[in-house]
Model the fold of this input.
Amino acid sequence: MKRTVDVVKVGDRIRFEGQIHVLAGLDGPRCRLLAEEDASVRVLLLTQVLAAPDFDVPDHPHSARRRVPVHGPLDGLGPEVRDKALSWERHILEVETGHIGPRQDWPPRPGYDPALHSLAEREAAKAAELTAAGQAVSVATVRRMRARYRKEGVWGLVDGRRKRERSVFGQADPRVVAAITGALTEQRGHSSGTLSRLRRQVAWLLQDTHGPETVAVPPAATFNRLVRAVAEQQGLALTAAGERRRASRPVPVFTPTHAMAPGELVMMDSTLLDVMVVCEDGKARRPELTMAVDVATRSITAAVLRPKGTKAVDAAVLLAQTLVPQQMRPNWPQYLSMAASVIPHQRLVSIDTRIQGAAARPVIRPTTAVIDQGKVFVSRCFLAAAEHLGISVQPCPPASGHAKGQVERGFGAIGTLFAQYVAGYTGNSLDARGSNVEDQARWTLPQLQDLLDEWIVCGWQERRHERLRHPLMPRLTLTPNEMWAALIAIAGHVPVPLAAADWIELLPSRRCAIGDEGIRFEHRTYDGPVLKGHRHRSAAADGKWEVHHNPYEPWQCWVRLPHGWEPVPWIHQGLVSKPFTDTTWRHIRSMVKQREGRAEHEEQLARHLDELLRRAHSADTGASNVAGSRPGGTTPGALGAAAAGGEPSAAGRPTHSRRKTQADRTKRRKTKTELPGNRAGQAPDTDEDCGTAPDIADSVTSAAAWSIFDAHQEAQQW
Done:
């Protein structure tokens, strides 16, 4: 029986390193090669010879190197083409070895035994067999298929027409493809246009290159499909926005961001939240969200909301909040606490007592903070806070959102999972924005901050994240809290408690005077017993004191006194928690809405005020009386004069002691008739000298027009 193809014996001629050698001897793993040209002898390892790229046994009818079957490319072909190639493989193996498959314990069929028939006879037998089966095959075809199988394996037995790769451009003219590529390349950096403009530019380019009416431009629909295929294949952009997106992508091959320990990489960024909130001035605006995301656990370690225009001190406070456990709010259920979660609460409490009573949100100390080039994060305040906390700062290249993709994707998740359910949602684009979104705003900034904090605990930290998978368990997804619990058991938890003084030092500071009313800034007044003895007594050159405050908690501020930091409460701290404050806030907000349509009225009032001040400066007593007159009553000045001493009138009211002339009365009536608010030619309801009381029905109507407090209506709000 013929020896197997992967066996050589002493005396075989071997091709090795471009020369023909004779295998002169075998000694265990070593072999002795005798070169035919110069009769030189070399002793080498047999594995080294067999592994040589050009190793071959020329005297064998087929390669001495066993070829691993290549069946992967066959999967992309149709079943008919694949079955035909595998059928040819069996025929070729039977011609060469006498056996159809790798098993050689069965005797060869008649006409295919290599010991009895030569290779030419076996090729002729195979051609006759296939022709008798209905497949016209010649001996030359069998010989050609053997050569292709020896060179490419089973892939060489596939019809060449089936292996031909299709062009992504179809049957398009290469000259048109080259013109489209040139036009797309030429429009880089220019404003976007339509495809019809690009089609005209391609036609001009073809005329300039190949002459007029030489190459035809495809029809519009075909041209549009071809342009998109060329842009995708050549890596070109069709619009200016697409060009900017491509420019911001990382250059392949790039290294993905990995973090194996909590806090190893913490990414920070700011963006506008797609929700309208009611700001302190009563107007609805979009707040700015500043957030920190831990890469290893995908946990949101801190998230704060501020009005548009985040300051550097806000980012510094964000750093400090990542190191402090979030305490449970009084209205939060117990199952939101860390004790009820998968986090090893008891073990952590024994290490860090601050976690007692904390919410189920990790406490992670950042080692490296990844930031962008925003002025908020590259400011002196933020860098000083990071240096104070021992955190290294790693800036990202400009316009490279992929470098902090975790926090960018977190913003998108907050918009989808949280923001779109909040009253006053604006949508993520102008196309998705509804009408009168400002009127739908229901939450103030502190209230929305409380909602966001609660959602992070119950909505984000307990939600399975697709990127939180262990390499050895890729089918299992984990939540941020589960990943933090798993990593903290290995990496450990080293508490870095911030003392009260450290926390205060990270807060924004300002210079304020301590006056008789206390400390006043941002339209708030802070006062308390701790300021006793320090009013108007600053030893500084400017006569002021250093005051720190938390912009997210305006209930108190801290002043640096000679013996250290002291908290000073806001004088209205107890008022804001009472129901009357919410009622007043809603009424004030309704008046702010009315104010927006009263610009003309306010302009008239401003002009009238200017005239009043001018008259007061010129000491015109007649005009003063006119300015103070009221329809249906007397002026405050007249009442005061009557109280000082005057004769009682017929209606029981004292009149002015000075006798007025008939001309003055006529002048006052004429002026009062022309006041803004009275229609032209309409006389006032009562004369100034007449003491007729207003009608009760008119008073009730006036009260309804001014929307007086209705206790029954307000009771429905609580």
Summary: The radius of gyration is 45 Å. The longest strand covers residues 19-27.
